[in-house]
Design a protein that fits this description.
GO molecular function: alpha-amylase activity; calcium ion binding
Helix content: 25-40%
Number of domains: 2
EC number: 3.2.1.1
Strand order of the largest sheet: 1-2-5-8-11-12-13-14
CATH superfamily of the largest domain: Glycosidases
Structural class: alpha/beta
Oligomer: single chain
Strand content: 15-25%
GO biological process, one term: carbohydrate metabolic process
CATH topology of the largest domain: TIM Barrel
Organism: Silvibacterium bohemicum
CATH class of the largest domain: Alpha Beta
Distance between the termini: 22 Å
Binding site for Ca(2+) 1: 105
Largest sheet: 8 strands, parallel, barrel
């Protein structure tokens, strides 16, 4: 499985001194990201929004990627189309895919107010974009002659597009086609999917895209920020519309991992309970620790964040690493066994096969990945240990699937970074003791 980087955080261009230059700034990181083992980038919304210093989640002109003088400037917060294409080309040359952030429901920045004749309400629904693509009026939004009731939830009071209107549906399809076939994106992250019908995501996902004369099947993931059952229901619905399977961000797992990191004496046995996407349907789970929203809303993980990364990079799912953690909070820690880079290496080379819990009590969790092998790939498996005790190394003897096997520690971190976990060798029945540092983790791999 691959590893994704969320290549932005809230107001990152301003905070990094790269306003209008973010695409160029990310491009400078591509070579290093490739060498560290990343396989894909998730970029922020690329279209001109209601203001040129907007993160793009209030789209105005979908087809202006930073080349028309409107809404306060020419470039978007991140750059222009040429710079975006250059970034994507650079990523492709280094073997990385790039995913577009799709905001296809709520709009902002309307040029005129209009009275909607259906309900008599006045709204900013007249859009006359300079790209001359996708002009809108009241009938493009809810309530519309095509659909009066919004199929989903309202976001922030913005006018919501009516996808049942053929003009709107066509524009969204043309936008998706442009991003894949012209700009070079390889997939989509859909924002706030509970704000519109799953059929729209499914329709965009299953379209037969072509680029450079070759078919392209995009990777697609939706943001459904809810409980496990709601996400399950959405996945069932959206995948009933498409043969290209759509994934979802695993919010339930993320909140459990936040408790692991930030809640004193959290009971690690809760990690084994049902209710996370990665356990029941791992091929549909994008796992993550924080993102632009959780941090911006003051809900980010504060303590011992490497504990959480150690879980998502050793277990099933498609892990996503957050730019702010990797770069700004310096959790990459290249050249050491203590950081995200070491865990990415573990993920690629060893984290194959099903997870099997070998031991779990309130303070100690031990899991093995059973390994995987086919004609192209071999991942031998691993032993993962998570220690919740804050003042001592902890481990216990467990029965693994490997008899008479030597294991070496490949990644570890905790409140004691000085000590080095020892190599371990299982007996004839596969038994050995595997410890981890206080408030830390250790990953052992077959030597």
């Amino acid at each position: 499985m691959s590893v994704m980087l969320q290549a932005f955080y809230w107001d990152c261009p301003e905070k990094e001194g790269k306003t209008g230059e973010w695409w160029n700034f990310v491009a400078e990181k591509i070579d290093g990201l490739s060498k560290s083992g990343f396989n894909s980038l998730w970029l922020p919304p690329v279209s001109k929004a209601a203001g040129v210093t907007s993160m793009g989640y209030d789209p105005y002109d979908y087809f202006d990627l930073g080349d028309f003088d409107q809404k306060g400037g020419v470039k978007t917060y991140f750059g222009n189309r040429k710079e975006l294409e250059s970034l994507i080309n650079n990523a492709h040359e280094h073997g990385l895919q790039v995913y577009a952030d799709m905001v296809i429901n709520h709009n902002s920045g309307g040029d005129e107010e209009e009275v909607n004749p259906i309900d008599g309400e006045k709204r900013w629904t007249k859009f006359t974009p300079k790209s001359k693509m996708f002009p809108r009026d009241w009938n493009s939004f809810h309530p519309s002659r095509y659909e009066q009731t919004l199929e989903g939830e309202v976001f922030a009071g913005f006018p919501h597009l009516c996808h049942r209107n053929p003009l709107v549906y066509t524009a969204m399809m043309e936008y998706a086609q442009m991003l894949i076939e012209q700009i070079g994106f390889d997939g989509f992250r859909f924002d706030f999917v509970k704000g519109y019908g799953p059929w729209m995501v499914g329709t965009i996902a299953k379209y037969r895209y072509e680029r450079d004369g070759k078919p392209l099947v995009p990777f697609v993931v939706g943001e459904y920020w809810e409980d496990n059952q709601s996400i399950e229901d959405w996945l069932n619905k959206v995948n009933s519309f498409t043969d290209n399977q759509v994934a979802a961000f695993d919010f339930p797992l993320r909140y459990r991992l936040k408790d692991v990191c930030d809640t004193p004496s959290y009971d690690l046995r809760k990690l084994t309970e049902d209710g996370v996407i990665a356990t029941k349907r791992p091929m549909h789970a994008v796992t993550f620790i924080d993102n632009h929203d959780t941090v911006n809303e003051g809900n980010g993980i504060v303590n011992d964040k490497m504990l959480a990364y150690s879980v998502i990079l050793t277990h099933e799912g498609y892990p996503s690493v957050f730019w702010l953690d990797y770069f700004n909070f310096e959790l990459a820690r290249p050249g050491t066994p203590h950081g995200i880079d070491a865990l990415i290496d573990v993920h690629h080379r060893y984290a194959g096969g099903e997870s099997e819990i070998l031991h779990c009590d309130p303070d100690l969790y031990i899991m093995q990945r059973n390994g995987f092998k086919n004609d192209d790939t071999e991942q031998p498996g691993l032993i993962f240990v998570l220690n919740n005790l804050g003042n001592q190394w902890s481990g216990t003897s467990v029965k693994t699937r490997w008899p008479n096997q030597k294991f070496k520690p490949l990644a570890w971190d905790g409140h004691d970074q000085v000590a080095h976990p020892d190599e371990r060798t299982t007996d004839a029945e596969g038994n050995a003791e595997f410890p981890a540092p206080p408030r830390g983790f250790a990953v052992y791999v077959p030597a």
